[in-house]
């Protein structure tokens, strides 16, 4: 097996931070190839390969990869920015397998749990299959892509319009209700942390997702808008005040009722049971007006969002506020049919001032007050040609709604929903500054640390 038979695809993003990070990783991989005295393999960055922003969801990208690399390559290897790869060990692994068989492998597997975050979680059939963990890498054999997947993607769109849990949904699509190949576990493809004693035999390891980019953004440069309503003033707002409000320098609560004890601001938009688009756009307009302090960053959260402001300050130091940044947990809608990506609101939505100004200047607006604000924003940014930036550190749901392996290597920034939990205890377990934080200088290594 020669390295030129493997196509490496880094799941990169177009913001300057992620693009530079991915470029450094590409050079690191090519340097490994040179040291092995091998032919240099193709190392692709998704944001460079295609102009279709939705190709981060992988499946729409497969026909292009099949047409471009199907003749001369045997394997295609997808991995995230946080994956560390030992190419020499990877070659040893792949030589064990027959590339002429129609199969694909993933980093590790676990049975689907009933509370796994996914819009498929209600489906009883899922307990019969094995699915990849949410972090790390996965690989497809190009013979399988050429003969099966490329045409299937063209002829059979995804059954769901939404892309929420990427690897989960790809696994289901390939499994095809039992008609497709099973997933193949490979022990040496690990989710162990880089430098861990248990990682000695691993071809892949992972880093934490909280990068180090210098001094944290000052908390005075983050304006925080909390969306609430009268019926939750006594139930949810006190949780914010008991947990993360003390870390905020600039925070306002927006409601349908002006309550001086909090205090809240009535934006003149009636409360809606869902959507809240009217309220969110009113917040955006207030942010760029003289009524709000002038900051580089705007954070919009729900009143039942739990968030670590100090960790957000560290993360935002990696991003250039002069760019139109829309940051959070990314979902997709209709990506196989020219749809759009959006930041799901519950986990928190972060915007640079430039992004908000461009959005409001574009004339894009809500079609109704109760329209889904996060999806409308996604449509607006997509129409403007501004891609959203994904961070898996923001979470739309509670910690128990995620597989343990997904959270094991994270320093999370947010969780959402108070349902059936003690939110104060959850905050102190997962998001308090003395829980789970690591020396930032140890997070990145090699080329990727020089940002």
Automatic annotation (TrEMBL):
Gene Ontology CC entries for this record: endomembrane system; membrane
Membrane topology of the entry: Single-pass membrane protein; Single-pass type II membrane protein
Protein name: Beta 3-glucosyltransferase a
Organism of origin: Lepisosteus oculatus
Subcellular localization(s) per the UniProt record: Endomembrane system; Membrane
Domain of life: Eukaryota
Keyword Transferase part of the UniProt annotation: yes
UniProt keyword annotation of rRNA-binding present: no
Name of one Pfam family that matches: Fringe
Record InterPro entries: Fringe-like_glycosylTrfase
Keywords tagged on the record: Glycosyltransferase, Membrane, Signal-anchor, Transferase, Transmembrane, Transmembrane helix
Family named by the database record: Belongs to the glycosyltransferase 31 family.
PANTHER family tied to this protein: FRINGE-RELATED
One Gene Ontology MF term: acetylglucosaminyltransferase activity
Domain Fringe-like glycosyltransferase positions: 216-421
